[in-house]
Each structure stands twice: as structure tokens, then as C-alpha cells.
Amino acid sequence: MKGFLPFALLFFSLAASAGDKAETVSIETAGSQMVLYVHPDGEVSFFHYGARFDDPEQVIGYKSYRRWDYGTEPPAYPARGGRHFNQSALAVKYHTGDINTELTYAGHTVSALSDDITRTVLSLRDSKTGIGVELYYDAYYDEDVIVSHAEITNGGNRPVRLESYYSSGIVLDASEYLLTHFYGAWAREMQLESELLTHGIKSIRSIKGVRTTHTENPSFMLSLNTETFSEEYGEVIAGALVWSGNYSIDFQVDETNRLSVISGVCPDGAAYSLDKGKTLHTPDMIYTYSCRGAGQASRNLHSWARKYCLYDPSSVAPSLLNNWEGTYFDFNEDILKGIIDNAASMGLEMFVLDDGWFGGKDYPRNDSDQGLGDWQVDPVKLPNGVGVIADYAHSKGLKFGIWIEPEMVSPESHLAKDHPDWIVKEDGREVTTIRRQWLLDLCNPEVQDFVFGVFDSTMQLADGIDYIKWDCNRHVESAGSAYLKDNSGFWFDYTQGLYSVYRRIREKYPDVIIQSCASGGGRMDYGALRYCNEAWTSDNTEALTRVFIQYGTNLIYPAVVCGSHVSAVPNHQTGNITPLKFRFDVACSGRLGMELQPSDMTDEEKDFARKAIGSYKQYRDLVYYGDLYRMGNPYKDDCYALMYVSEDKSRAVFFAYTIKYMGRTQRPLFRLTGLDPEKKYRISELNVGKSCFWGNGRTFTGSYLASHGLNLNMEKVYSSAVFYIEAEQ
Ligand code: DGJ
């Protein structure tokens, strides 16, 4: 659309026809096209998503040579009923007992939202029941991203029950579908798994309610017509759901060998009652198409997210020291001041006070057994309050951040005793604890007020709170809300309740930096990132496993949202011992922090930390806003590298890690494909006396670096290198 549509000029509505001739609806970006086909009888099928073929009219009269009366043409938004027999995006039950919905074309509109964004809204109606669906497709031209969701309206005169209400569906036609998705667990998030889809249905989903992204992430990559996951080659479609609650992404290869993908809120136990005249807005589903492998798909998602989705990516958490692994619950004013002194002397820019500062005098938070919900300062650990710690940090030139977990309550707390009706539970069933805590019922507006109040009052604890780490350390069990009439609405309403609190917070505190944490990376999704500036990538701070966690995370989410901290050895999670340089070089490829007791470091280690933090400040804008190029893959290569390149290709920073011993005769060679082949670049290794590159300090053409590459002397396991790359003027 770009180039043809001046901003806000175009808005047209096509008559609700279901007329006698076929037509097409084409949704286009610079390098991709999605085409829907409106049949003369009003059915709308999904025709194409992939590379552009431009004029959509050429497909009018298309014949699939399959029998139409066998229902083999895939609907744009598959509803249960009529001829449709695959997995349904929409399943409605009516008061008459009717379980069918037959959606037909009722018109579409196209409007330019900006020079870059074109919105297409396709309207579908079931003429018998009055159910209406508006399918939104926002095409982001430059980023090759299409964002889609459904709005379902009950136009009938009785309430209906939505048994499924997915956001969106696409249909692909390829010889092979290689699905790459992200499984994991606590301290092992975003692990890659690739599998060739076979006939049948494969779902990735979470029914944990909150903390939904530890064990699967609501995102995927599909490599088409290949059995190989490739960084640089081939067609890839990537998707991510903008939602922090239960989700399901279902992949069905059917008898026609086509693949239908439907994505949205997980229907399991979540039927939603929709009153007459009401509309349900489903979450956004993001798609991108790349004909240059997974690398380009990631870059599309990252640049779209930075421009249109993330909460203020220009405001990034400064380099910080978080006291969690350094002290756990065992601290006092002097210990914290000592940490702040050390953090300041190493050049860090913020101190974050983690769990353990609250609970008041009755339920002091000395371990994870009590105190959640009682957000008064612990008078024993911090007799002078939190304000003195914040003031001390400020006096040393540091910003100040603090931890909260406002959705939770410990059984041992005043809150639990005062408000038993605020706890997620079902009468007559045991209220299970996880980490000795219960979940508060965010479906209830009073609880939403309370959670907002926790944030608000924490912000008043000191002058100048710059950062809030919002944690969430359990998931839902025995779902039940004393507030709701029908608990099957719990899952959807909880997440909406969370978003409504986030919105209130953002109205009052637009500038505070918020980290989305849920036992590490349990809330790493684009839904939370619309309100939170960053996420805590994982509680696993060990550098070797972090290479894998960050690799997986950055396939979908940009580095600017990935908190990445240097911690002590032996590592508290894995027991592994890695050199300090390796730990820094891994952490510096995200938003850098430290998470240890700095008084345990030697002077030599502190000197190295000072140097690494100093050089990070010179290039971190590239990590936050540059284009990511991965060289190889840690799952198959002994040495893995990545590079962030500025938009104008004048600067780059390159990181390499040896993660397996490769033998005496092999050395890594990296082709730096993201640079400008015409430019000459000076290559400078950072933070070392002796470089691992024979040409360190010299200049090389972009074409040499891309076609021959950078060969490095990185034989030993845990060797690592950071190079700053700058074009000569
Ligand atoms: C889980 C988080 O992921 C950790 O970083 C830490 O904040 C603890 N909770 C505190 O209880």
C-alpha cells in the first residue's frame, strides 16, 4: 500500500454483498502478501500467505480441483458448523442447542493508519444467529509484519456461549512444514525444538493462567518446503501472540496436506458467555514472512516490536546490580550500602533491592514462607525505611529499583486473613500453595485496586524510584473466583484484569521502568511487554546455559527487553564454573546487569568488571536497537556468534563464544553477512590484552568479512570475544 496511499487518505467500504461474483481481499507488505478469497456464495477462504504475487485479481476463477461440496476450502476464520471440519477458531453454542455457525462475507474496509500501516477489516456474519466477526489485519509495510485479531459480536437477542474464540488463522500449502517452538522449564526457558509436522494436530499451549511462558512460549517459526532450520535461507513464517494468559497455537495438517494454524486464547475450560449486543476483543496475533530464513524473520519481529509494540524502548534499564543472588533474604542497611558502594565503583548505574524488604513486624519476609501481601517495610532489616537506601544509591550516582510481587499472598500474612475472598480458589477444594503462596483474584475489581495500590504505595517509599521488578512466582491451580458468576470466564478475565492494572499504572507512572518477571522468564510475551520495558529472561544466570536461553528468546524477542546478569561461580543454579570474561561477554549481549555480592570479588575481577561495563556503555545502543545477525546455532556449532548492526551499517558489535571443545585442528570462521560490502571496517577486540584475531585493529572490507569471514583463535571451551566494528569515514 505504501507509496500509493497518502496517510489517512484512503478509506473505503465495500458493500456487504455475498453477491454473485468472486472477489479478493489482499493484505500487503513490502515483501509479503496475504490473500483472502470471497466466493460468490459469500464464503471467505484463506488463499495465500507468503511472497507477493501482486495483482490479487488474477486468481479470480481459481480452481482447486477439489470438490467444493466436500468442504475442502479453508475458511479465513474457521467456525464450527456448516461444511467446516477442521479445528475451529470459533465455536459457539446457542440457547436453542444449535452448535453451528456459518460465517459469510458482509463487507470489508481498508484504511491507512499511517504511511506504514494499512488496516483491513473483514466483516463476517452468521445470518441465522446474528453472530458477527470482524477480522482485523494491520499490515506494517516496512517491517513485513501483519497483526491480526478477531472481534466477536453477539448480534442475536440471547446470550451465547463461546466455546472457542481464537484470534486468527492462516493456511499454508508447502511440501514440508518444519515447526520450531520453545519448550522449557524454570531456569531453562526458550529451548529450541524443531519437528516436521505430520498429519493431525499439534498444539503448543499453556493452561497455567499466569506464568505461562516457562514451559512453552506463545510463539513459533515455520520453515517451509525444507527439513532444515536455516538462519539465512528459505521461507519462514514466524508468529507470536500478544497475550499473557492461557493460549493455544494449533497446527493442523489435513487430508489436503495444507497446514492450518489457529492462535489465540486456549479454549480449555474457558468458555465465555457473551451477552446480546456485546463484543469480545481477542488478543493480537503477530505474523511475519521472510524469504531469507529465520534471521530475517527475527529482524522483522524485532524492528516491528521496537517501533510498535514494546513499552517505550527508548527508556532502557541502566546497567544494574540486583542483590538477589548476592544476599537472598539476608541483608540489612549496611550490607546494602556496601553493595551500592561496590556497584558505583564498578561503573554500574542502578541498584535494585530484590525480595525480602517487607512483611512488616508480624510477617517479616526472611524466607519465601510468609509476608506476601503485607507490603510494609521490615522494621528489623530496614529500621530507617527503604528511603535511606534509595537516597544512598542516589548519593552515589545510582538510580534505584525495587522488587514487588503484587498478585500474590502468603497464607502467613494479614492480607490472607483479612481478605480470604480475594484468593483464587474453589469452595470445598484444597487451596494448594506453590512456593508457599496463593494467587489473588485479579478478576475482582477490588483486587485490581489493591494490586494497583501496592505499586502506587511502593512508589512512595522513597524519592526517586526508577525501576520496579514485578515478579509472579506461581501459576493457577484450582481456578475459582468468588467474584465471577461463571468460573469458565476466569482465565480471560484474569489477564484482562492484569492489563487493566498495568494501564492504570502507566497512566500514573509513564516513566518508571518496569521489568516483567515470573520466576525468571515466565512472563516473556508481547502482551506484558506492551506495558513493561523489559523482562527477566531467566533465573538461570549461568553463562553457558544463558547462551541457549538468550538464543531462543532472541529468535522472537529483541535483546532490548532481555535482562542479562553476571553472577557468581560456582553458579547457584547449575554449579558450573565459567571465567568472568565469558560471563560478561554473554551478559553484554543483552541488557547488562550483575547479580552477586561484589564484596566476594577480587580486586582483579572488579577491574575487569569496570572495563567491561565501561566498554558496554560505548556499544550498548547497538545491542538495544541494532539488527541482529546470528552466525550459526549453539545447538549444532561448537562456537556460536552473533552481531548487532546499526541501521546505517556504520557500526556493529560482534560476540563469539566457544561452548564445546572443537579439537586441535579446528578454529571458528564467521561470515559477517549483515555489514555493507562496500564499506571498510576497523575491527577492534574489547577488554583483552592479547586479541584472538590476527588482524585486530586493522580495517577490512565488508565484502571480505562477509565472503571470507573472521577466523578466530578460540580453541578452549569458554573462550569468548567481543569486537567493536566501525566503518571508516
Ligand atoms: C524469582 C525471580 O525470578 C528472582 O529473580 C527473584 O526476584 C526471586 N523470585 C525473589 O523471590
Please tag this protein with its features.
729 residues, alpha+beta, Beta-galactosidase, Chain A, domain 5, Immunoglobulin-like, 3 domains, eight-stranded parallel beta barrel, 11 helices, 18% helix, binds (2R,3S,4R,5S)-2-(hydroxymethyl)piperidine-3,4,5-triol
Shape: globular
Distance between the termini: 36 Å
Ranges with pLDDT <50 over ≥5 residues? 3-18
Number of helices: 11
Number of strands: 39
- Stated plainly, the CATH topology of the largest domain is called Beta-galactosidase, Chain A, domain 5
CATH class of the largest domain: Mainly Beta
CATH architecture name of the largest domain? Distorted Sandwich
CATH homologous superfamily annotation of the largest domain: alpha-galactosidase from lactobacil brevis
> Which structural class matches the secondary elements?
alpha+beta
Mean pLDDT: 96
